[in-house]
Amino acid sequence: MEISISIEGQSGLNWVLWNRLIAEVERLGFAGLFRSDHFTMDDPPTIDSLEAFTSLAHLASHSQRVHFGTLVAPFSFRDPVMLARQSMQIDALSGGRMILGVGAGWHGLEHTMFGYPLGDVKTRMERLEEGLQVVSLLLRKDEPVSFEGRYYQLKNARLLPCPRRPTRLLVGGNGPKRTLPLAARYADIWNCAEGTPEFFRERSMMLDNLLVSEGRQPGDVKRTLLIPVITWSNQVELSRQMDTYRSLFGDMPDEAILKWFSENMHAIVGEPDQVVEAIRHYQTAGVEELILQWFALQDFASLNFLAETILPHFMT
Fold first, then answer.
1. What pLDDT, on the 0 to 100 scale, is given for residue 221?
2. Under a CB-based contact definition with an 8 Å cutoff, are residues 230 and 269 in contact?
3. pLDDT digits (tens, 9 = 90+) for 166-205
C-alpha cells in the first residue's frame, strides 16, 4: 500500500514552506503529495494561501519521483476547460505524475468573499457531473469534441499538444446516490474522505457494482482514502504536537484534541505500533493508497518521525 501526504494549502502555505515540503516528502519516501484547493477559511483572510495549480506546476519541476495533485479542485470556482488544460500540461511537465482531483465545492464563505456562486446541493452536483463530462472529453479524446450543457459548452474543442496518455482523474466523495456513480463513470482514482475500515469496504463494494454496470472492471479505479494521522514517541512529543492544534482549538487538553480528531474525523491516533496496526486494517479493507491529511505544515520533526516509524512497514 502506498502512503502519501495531503496538506491544507489555505492554512499558511507559502513558497518557503512549499519548497521544503516538496523536498522532505520526496526525501522521506512518501508516494505522493496532495493539497487542497481553497482561497481561505478565515473572514477576513489572515494567513497565507498558495494558489493550487501554480504550486503544482512548481512541484512538477522541483521533484523527481512523487505523484501529486488536488484534493480536490471544485467546479464551483474552477472552469473545467482550464482545469483540463492546466492539468494536462503539468502532467506532461512532470513526466506523468499529475492527478486531477475534482469535487463539487462546499465552503460558502470563500465563494461569497470572491463572488463565485456556490449554489444549492442540487446545483453543485449537476455542475460536478457536467464538469466531469467536459474534463473527460478534453483529456481523453484526440479529436475535436462538442458538448452542450446547462453550465458548460464546447464546440469542436481540442487541447494541444496532445498528451502521451490522459491525465489521471480523481473523484472524491462517499455519496452512494451521486458521487460514487460519477466515480464509476469517469474516475481513474476514487478518494474516500475519512471513515472506518468497515465503511470504506462497504463503499468500495458499492463502487465495484457500479463499475460493472458501467461496463468497466473493479480494477479500473484505484481506491484511496484521505484521513488524518497523529503519532508520537512520548508524552512530551505529544504535547509539543498538540500545541500546533491548540492554535486552532483553543486551550484544550491533549486528550480532548485527540478525542475530537478520533470521533469527528476517524483520525488514526496513537503511538507508532498502534498506528501501524490501524493502517493494516485499512489495507485489508482494500485501501491501495492511504493519503495522510497533515495539518501541521511547519512541524517537520513530526513528519520525519512519521516517515521513520510508519513507512518501513508498508514499503516494498
1. 98
2. yes
3. 999 999 999 999 999 999 999 999 999 879 999 999 999 9
* Total length of the chain: 316
> What pLDDT score was predicted for residue 251?
86
Under a CB-based contact definition with an 8 Å cutoff, are residues 69 and 80 in contact? no
Show Cβ contacts of residue 121 under 8 Å, excluding neighbours closer than 6 positions.
none
Q: Which stretches of the chain are assigned E, i.e. beta strand? A: 2-7, 32-35, 67-70, 73-74, 98-103, 145-148, 153-157, 168-172, 189-193, 222-231, 268-270, 289-294
The cell numbers describing 161, all together, are: 499538444
The whole-angstrom separation of Cα 107 and Cα 78 is 14
Alpha carbon distance 231, 300 (integer Å): 13
* Extended beta strands in 152-298, E state: 153-157, 168-172, 189-193, 222-231, 268-270, 289-294
Q: Give the Cβ contact number of residue 285 at 10 Å.
A: 20
Which residue is it, cell 505524475? 97
**Cell triple for residue 91?**
502532467
For residue 311, pLDDT beyond 80 = yes
User: Which of the 8 DSSP states describes residue 219?
Assistant: G
CB of 105 closer than 8 Å to CB of 77? yes
pLDDT for 51? 98
Query: What residue ranges define each of the domains in the chain, with the CATH number in brackets?
Result: 2-229+269-313 (3.20.20.30)
Separation of alpha carbons 33 and 313, rounded Å: 19
Per-residue model confidence as pLDDT tens digits over 88-129 = 999 999 999 999 999 999 999 999 999 999 999 999 999 999
Tell me the C-alpha distance between 153 and 13, whole Å. 34
